């Protein structure tokens, strides 16, 4: 304790002395390195590198062709149909499955396996797609995510098992996960386009990269939380390590793995607009068109459709995975026959009467126009109050915090972060932090990095302050938990771009708009993790506490909270990472940090500069996350093992 206090005092003295030196406050230009230019040259060389008679680009395009096969098959089955030519005859087109067959089959399956509630949810979502004129876009989106989600979950599960069984692999994979989650998606989108081409497959690869890390981390976390008695029983019965993993531990961890599946689904849908940016079709394209044309109501309607589809798929997958063994087994043959007959009948009906393939236009309506009008009315009615709120937060919170972060130069800040890492996490963490932040300064990114850091820190702290009590309330009350799930799903699955629509309309562009968008985006994961962790505490622990005479407050602080704390720390870590990932989006509303430089580099087609700026954001995110976890582990040693599983 005395050693730590002495180290803090010495660090503060050094900071005050060093901050008075000009070169220590602002790094001289001649000391910096233009790494972006060198990376661009390296990428050019890599694309021209040959393996045998094939270039790297040829190989990556071949991989994209393989990935395109399931997407093309599903697209033909549900959207475009299949074109045939038999024995040299004139080609004919087999129609896709029509909308009425899909509605009937999906609602029937939902009712049989999930009950009336799931059937109502699925039927309501499908009706929304039909009556708002978004059916074709919704099916195109379904085709994309039906390929991306299994790939993301499969890779995440395999990598999580690998990290669980081999600690060395975990040490290699964790920085890779952090980089994928915190590197702005636009930074590596240019790389994906270079290697995989322009179109839906490039978007598919981007979705998998962005959505897979949470599944991998939660898999490792869940396997390490498997009760030791179950593992020992598997060993006693002679299970091999593979059987122990797949037949015992993975099934026992299903409840926790569902959180990973949920994150993959939500993150996949929240980024589907990326497919539209690089040529994809679907609901993301509708959102993008609405933003470009400032038809904000239409963009909101399409964004809500993305959210509804994500919730529908998440609930269906959850019920399917958690179903009892043998559930629906006796009716499987009959169900399959009915579904096939309805599908075939629908295809034949469209073949004979092509006009029935399209939902009647007379039944469609356009809620986007109504929403546009209501946004304008609300803005005019409450503009004075909104302006007062914005100005008060800017003058009382945002501006002082930004000036505080800017008051220290690169060297004092580097020493401060390194000293904090040394006190909380030890020598290895301090070396890692100094090297990463030193690289940020060396590449001439320090001033921009501090703007990004201040915005994320203040936004994340606000999200945690608001999310913790909400999560605790939902964790202690089942009805509140159900409501929170719906709200959190809505916030997490709305495309990040959609957050900008009401924010810009109500508060205009600037740091406050960026602050509100990041807070809303980070509120969902922290509240969800807190609530889920409290809900998953076994009833036997609560019963033991009651038998020992604990009242409700004592049960919470001495039983529920300590048991749930590892997963709460995981939620805070994920909130930090997601908040940093949101930076590139808020660059569109006037934030001026590294995210703005990344966006500018993409517009100027400078992939090296965009990548190095994105890596700067990743370095900041990893630094903050590691220091937060190290501090938590030091103050509460019981969380060390769990939090280390998702480092």
Low-pLDDT regions: 638-647
Spatially, the strands of the biggest sheet line up as 1-2
Helix content: over 70%
Termini separation comes to 25 Å
Shape: globular
Structural class based on helices, strands and sheet pairing: mainly alpha
Which descriptors would you attach to this protein?
4 strands; mainly alpha; two-stranded antiparallel ribbon; 29 helices; 2% strand; 647 residues
Structure description:
This protein has 647 residues and is mainly alpha-helical. The protein is built from 29 helices and four strands. Strand 1 and strand 2 form a beta hairpin. Helix 9 runs antiparallel to helix 12. The protein starts with a helix and ends with a helix.
Summarize the structure.
This protein has 647 residues and is mainly alpha-helical.
Write the layout of secondary structure elements.
Layout lengths: L1 H17 L3 H4 L9 H14 L1 E2 L2 E2 H25 L1 E3 L7 E3 L4 H33 L3 H31 L1 H16 L2 H12 L3 H25 L3 H9 L4 H12 L1 H17 L2 H5 L5 H10 L3 H26 L10 H21 L14 H41 L2 H16 L1 H16 L3 H31 L1 H16 L2 H12 L3 H25 L3 H9 L4 H30 L1 H4 L7 H10 L3 H29 L4 H5 L3
Helix pairs in contact: 1-18, 3-28, 4-6, 5-15, 5-16, 6-7, 6-9, 6-12, 6-14, 7-9, 7-28, 8-9, 8-28, 9-12, 10-11, 12-15, 14-15, 15-17, 15-21, 17-20, 17-22, 18-19, 18-28, 19-28, 20-21, 20-23, 20-25, 21-23, 22-23, 23-25, 24-25, 25-28, 27-28
């Amino acid at each position: 304790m005395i050693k730590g206090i002495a180290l803090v005092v010495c660090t503060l003295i050094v900071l005050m002395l060093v901050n008075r030196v000009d070169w220590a406050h602002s790094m001289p230009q001649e000391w910096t390195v233009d790494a972006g230019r060198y990376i661009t040259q390296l990428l050019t060389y890599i694309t021209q590198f040959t393996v045998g008679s094939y270039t790297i680009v040829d190989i990556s395009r071949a991989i994209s062709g393989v990935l395109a096969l399931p997407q093309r098959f599903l697209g033909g089955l549900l959207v475009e149909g299949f074109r045939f030519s038999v024995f040299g005859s004139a080609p004919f087109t087999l129609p896709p499955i029509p909308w009425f067959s899909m509605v009937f089959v999906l609602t029937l399956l939902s009712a049989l396996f999930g009950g009336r509630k799931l059937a109502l949810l699925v039927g309501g979502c499908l009706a929304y797609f039909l009556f708002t004129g978004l059916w074709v876009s919704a099916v195109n989106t379904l085709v994309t995510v039906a390929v991306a989600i299994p790939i993301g979950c499969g890779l995440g599960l395999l990598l999580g098992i690998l990290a669980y069984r081999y600690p060395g692999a975990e040490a290699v994979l964790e920085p890779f996960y952090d980089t994928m989650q915190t590197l702005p998606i636009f930074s590596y989108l240019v790389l994906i386009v270079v290697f995989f081409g322009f179109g839906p497959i490039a978007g598919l690869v981007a979705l998998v990269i962005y959505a897979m890390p949470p599944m991998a981390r939660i898999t490792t976390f869940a396997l390490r939380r498997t009760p030791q008695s179950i593992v020992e029983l598997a060993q006693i019965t002679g299970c091999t390590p593979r059987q122990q993993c797949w037949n015992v531990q993975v099934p026992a961890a299903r409840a926790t793995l569902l959180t990973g599946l949920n994150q993959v689904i939500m993150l996949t849908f929240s980024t589907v607009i990326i497919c539209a940016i690089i040529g994809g079709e679907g609901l993301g394209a509708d959102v993008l068109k609405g933003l470009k044309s400032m038809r904000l109501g239409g963009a909101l309607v399409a964004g809500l459709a993305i959210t509804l589809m994500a919730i529908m798929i998440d609930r269906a997958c959850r019920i399917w995975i958690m179903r009892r063994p043998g559930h629906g087994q006796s009716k499987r043959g009959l169900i399959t026959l009915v579904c096939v007959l309805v599908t075939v009948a629908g295809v034949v009906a469209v073949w004979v009467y092509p006009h029935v393939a399209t939902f009647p236009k007379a039944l469609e309506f356009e809620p986007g126009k109504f929403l546009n009008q209501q946004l304008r009315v609300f803005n005019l009615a409450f503009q004075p109050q909104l302006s007062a709120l914005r100005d008060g937060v800017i003058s009382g919170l945002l501006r002082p915090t930004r000036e505080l972060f800017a008051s220290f130069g690169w060297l004092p800040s580097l020493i401060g972060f390194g000293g904090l890492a040394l006190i909380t996490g030890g020598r290895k963490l301090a070396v890692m932090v100094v090297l990463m932040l030193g690289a940020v300064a060396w590449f001439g990114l320090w001033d921009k990095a501090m703007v990004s850091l201040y915005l994320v820190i203040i936004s994340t702290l606000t999200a945690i302050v608001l999310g913790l009590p909400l999560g605790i309330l939902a964790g202690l009350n089942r009805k509140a938990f159900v409501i929170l799930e719906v709200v959190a799903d809505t916030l997490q699955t709305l495309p990040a771009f959609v957050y900008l629509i009401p924010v810009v309309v109500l508060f205009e562009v600037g740091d406050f708009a960026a602050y509100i968008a990041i807070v809303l985006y980070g509120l969902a994961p922290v509240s969800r993790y807190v609530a889920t962790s409290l809900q998953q505490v076994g009833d036997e622990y609560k019963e033991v506490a009651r038998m020992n005479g604990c009242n409700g407050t004592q049960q919470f602080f001495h039983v529920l909270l300590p048991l749930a704390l590892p997963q709460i720390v995981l939620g805070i870590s994920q909130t930090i990472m997601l908040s940093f990932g949101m930076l590139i989006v808020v660059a569109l509303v006037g934030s001026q940090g590294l995210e703005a430089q990344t966006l500018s580099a993409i517009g100027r087609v400078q992939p090296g500069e965009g990548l190095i700026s994105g890596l700067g954001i990743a370095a900041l995110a990893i630094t903050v996350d590691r220091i937060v976890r190290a501090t938590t582990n030091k103050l509460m040693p019981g969380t060390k093992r769990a939090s280390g599983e998702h480092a």
